[in-house]
What does this fold into?
Amino acid sequence: MKIGIVLYPTFGGSGVVATELGKELALKGHEVHFITYSLPVRLGSFKANIFYHEVSVNDYPLFDYPPYELVLSSKLVDVVEHEGLDLLHVHYAIPHASAAYMARSILKKKGIKIPYITTLHGTDITLVGKDPSFESVITFAINESDAVTAVSESLKQDTYDSFKIDNGIDVIPNFVRMDRYNKKKDMDLRRRYAEDNERIISHISNFRPVKRIDDILHVFKKLSDEMPAKLLLIGDGPERYRLEAKCRELGICGKTKYLGKLRDTSQVLSISDLFMLTSEKESFGVSALEAMASGVPVISSNTGGLPEVNIHGESGFTSNVGDVDDMAKNAIYILKDPKNIEKFGNRAREIASGFDISKILPIYEKLYESLI
Ligand code: GMT
It folds into this structure.
């Protein structure tokens, strides 16, 4: 099949999932065309069957707001027509679903039929989408989609609760490549960050307020009062300055390291003893799944789709949003006993293997085939 993938090319979860999906489809022999405004960060170097079409918006003095969605729609028309695509798969409803709707309508006038699939990722529904200034367009573009998928049962329900949707929604969970997360613990790397007797706790995100990283700092303060530990924060974003100030306030700066944005997180996960994700909202939590695939137990909030990934009492523990006492209690329980780290870690990897790409890719392929 010839598949057009529209995505945000950044470190955000939806972009990562869309890029990894495209790479896997290409490996299986499909022709994949990424259509977005810059090279997707996870795309890496040249790969067979993969093509990239850049959407660049010219800046005219008249425009206070350059019309990205219109330029994207025109680009979709162009690529579908000239590359002979079979379908468009758009990740993140805003503005990709409405751009795909526009492109499909234009192409219909030209006698070309192109279905579009919209994959909902989370904030396009739970945060941004709920903004009344987007609502009617989102509802329309979702309802018009030839197929709609959501990355968790929880997100599917949120979508039905928040919008007037009369279209079906298939849940196709996010995935992981297990073989990429089976790295052996590199002791030299580990010793760069921690002494042998210290536990390593890690977190990966885009440092937005919805991640509630303050809670991680509070939990870390409590657990590091009880045992030697280091906290590794991977990623970057708007909360960074405030978090650094918070670290100073809590007196944990010497034990906290900011590693910045990493393209490949498998190494740092391989040296972690515990992963934390304490979000206010989280439709799925790909970073938690990647930690689990690395055999790392997870302490998370129980919001959104997180309990569908991090199974309470098995791969780690889930707590109510903001309940830092409960999170700290659970983290200490796991970290105090190396046997617990191993037991929860092994189960985490086992659960993650249920989300291996080999299980999820055929579901997408089947959906594509049903539409073309
Ligand atoms: O989590 C973010 O802030 C990024 C966001 C995105 O849109 O890229 O991630 C969302 O999509 C990911 C991939 O499906 C999910 O794993 C994340 O849980 C989801 N984020 C939220 O729901 C907050």
Q: What stands out?
A: Residues 293 and 350 are 8 Å apart (CA to CA). The pocket of GMT is lined by residues 12-15, 17, 92, 121-123, 126, 151, 174, 206, 208, 210, 281-286 (CB under 6 Å).
